[in-house]
Structures are given as structure tokens and as C-alpha cells.
Amino acid sequence: xxxxTTDFTTWSVSEVTDKAxxxxxxxxxxxxxxxxxxxxxxxxxxxxxxxxxxLSNQPRxxxxxLRTYGPGSLDGGDCGELCEMTEPCPxxxxxxxxxxDTYDNSIAAIYLTKxxxxxxxxxxxxxxxxxxxxxxxxxxxxxxxxxxxxxxxVTLLAAAYSDVSKAKAGNYESDGIYDGAVDTGNNAWxxxxxxxxx
Length: 198
Description:
The structure is a single chain. The chain is mainly α. It is built from 5 helices and 7 strands.
């Protein structure tokens, strides 16, 4: 109420408490709405089909690996500009082409295998196998060659490939390579992808 003698607005304790409770109730209701919105369990295969479709629409490079970043990513939701999460392609102004990660392709192969999408998983695994087993050892440093139990020579995979040109096994510096680092984790995920498929 307005205090005429002091010329100030005075609030009673009950008014302030009531307003605070009303705001608290509104905030709780909004939080619950958001929770319901995001915590909808997939009772059917509907949610997984979204992932299936996304993977099937990803561009592929010369070795048939799935693209990791770039146009066509799903963004971050319906929150306007703040959710613009599309990664440009190419991602690095100094490196031509788009990125096709070994790790991401391994995880995609595992997912597709578990979903029973065997042909799709096989396409990725075939690509990875081509990049593991060189057709020729010419020009490949002996330190990079590993003879497996089958007697075939294996070269480990680079971290990421490019779509500028088709990559070759055992070559870590070419237009087909986006990131030529040979990492333990990436190659371990490839092994897991083959193990899940077997």
C-alpha cells in the first residue's frame, strides 16, 4: 500500500510472501513441463529410427566413411540461435575437405550392428579394413607395418580422413588424410567394432 505520510510504497509481509510463493509455484510448474518435454522414454523404435535416418543421410567420402561434422547436423533443439551447433565444413581453414573420424565411424558401426542393420555396418567395416590392410607395401615405412596372426600386413588407422581424395592404408600424409595421428583409442574402437560385428 502507499504510505502517504512517508511517500513510500510499503509492502506487508504477507503480500511479499504470497508473491514469492506464486513465483516459486510458477517456476516449479515450468520446470516440470520442461522435464516432461525432455524425459519422454522411447517406448517404440521411434527414437532409434531418428538415429538410423541421420546416419543413413550422412555424406560419405571416397573410402565410404561417414562424415563427422558439417552441414546436415541436427543442431541443438528448438531454442533459436543459441542452439546453432552446426559445425562448418571444412572445419579448419588450413585443412581442405571435411572430417571423417575413425572413432565416429567405429561407434556408428557398433550401433548399426546392434540395430541389426548389418549391411550398413558392413559398409563402414569394409572401409576400415581397406585402410588397415595395404594393397602394396611400397613406400610404407617398415616401422608402420605390423604382421598379424593371419600373416597379412596391417597398418594402423589415422585419426581422421578427408573427402578431398581417397585415402590409402599406411599413408598418413595425403589429401585423403584430415588428421594423420595414429591414436591408441581410435584403433581400439575399430577393433571393438569388428568384435561386435563378428
